[in-house]
């Protein structure tokens, strides 16, 4: 059985892939965006291993694309979220929003339409 729950780091990387879009979602750029969004550095190895794990779960797909001349024409692996990945990330968001709505300090303050 395939695990359909996301860890926090996995979830953040998937969100970043969605934010960057299909032209910019390669490991180095994902790591840069992670640092920009969180203020925390991340090793490229951690990003690669997590992207591989998410692809093995069926949440991401990837393809090699020709590199730009400014990169020495090196190919880069571009990641995108699969339909299963979109479903899993939506379920994760819905679960967390439901928890936040139950938290007494914030109950009634959430008006998120999902």
Automatic annotation (TrEMBL):
It comes from Chryseosolibacter histidini. It comes from the Bacteria. This is PadR family transcriptional regulator. Residues 16-91 form the Transcription regulator PadR N-terminal domain. Gene3D superfamilies: Winged helix-like DNA-binding domain superfamily/Winged helix DNA-binding domain (1.10.10.10).
């Amino acid at each position: 059985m395939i695990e359909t729950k996301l860890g926090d780091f996995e979830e953040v990387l998937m969100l970043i892939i969605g934010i960057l879009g299909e032209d910019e979602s390669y490991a180095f750029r994902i790591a840069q965006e992670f640092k920009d969004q969180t203020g925390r550095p991340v090793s490229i190895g951690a990003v690669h291993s997590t992207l591989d794990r998410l692809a093995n779960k069926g949440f991401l797909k990837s393809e090699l694309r020709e590199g730009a001349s400014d990169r020495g024409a090196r190919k880069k692996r571009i990641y995108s979220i699969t339909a299963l990945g979109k479903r899993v990330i939506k379920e994760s968001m819905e679960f967390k929003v439901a928890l936040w709505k139950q938290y007494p300090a914030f109950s009634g303050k959430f008006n998120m339409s999902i």
